[in-house]
């Protein structure tokens, strides 16, 4: 998803800075871009289960050429982002969606984003 979003954004606006987000407990893209070589995801014990997939070689190549960096979100930050969206917007988002929002809630975020792309499977609301 991130690689396609990057290609689309850069195609429409070549100078745009693109940042990715990833759970700390499933950080293969972060490690891959930091090391310059594709890293595997041995295991992932994260609440953001929609982001447990490993990074593919083609995706890595696209991200390497188009992403400024990957921002990491801890489990507590993911949960806090879900809570913030609920409290302020009355929208229930699932943890994988919250990963894109969590870094923006940090004081040292990357500035004011023009767009935050948050997508994931639906979170089911518990019923009594």
What does this protein look like?
With 128 residues, the chain is mainly alpha-helical. It contains 5 helices and 2 strands, in the order H-E-H-H-E-H-H. The protein has a two-stranded parallel sheet. Mean pLDDT is 85; it is low at 120-128.
Descriptors:
128 residues; 5 helices
Number of helices: 5
What is the alpha-carbon Rg in Å?
Answer: 15 Å
Provide the residue-averaged pLDDT. 85
At CATH's second level, what is the architecture? Answer: 3-Layer(aba) Sandwich
Low-pLDDT residue spans: 120-128
List the helices and strands and how they pair.
Blueprint: H1 2-12, E1 19-23, H2 28-35, H3 57-66, E2 69-73, H4 75-89, H5 95-101
Helix pairs in contact: 1-3, 4-5
Give the gist of this structure:
The chain is mostly helical. It has helices at about 1-10, 30-35, 55-65, 75-90, 95-100, and strands spanning about 20-25, 70-75.
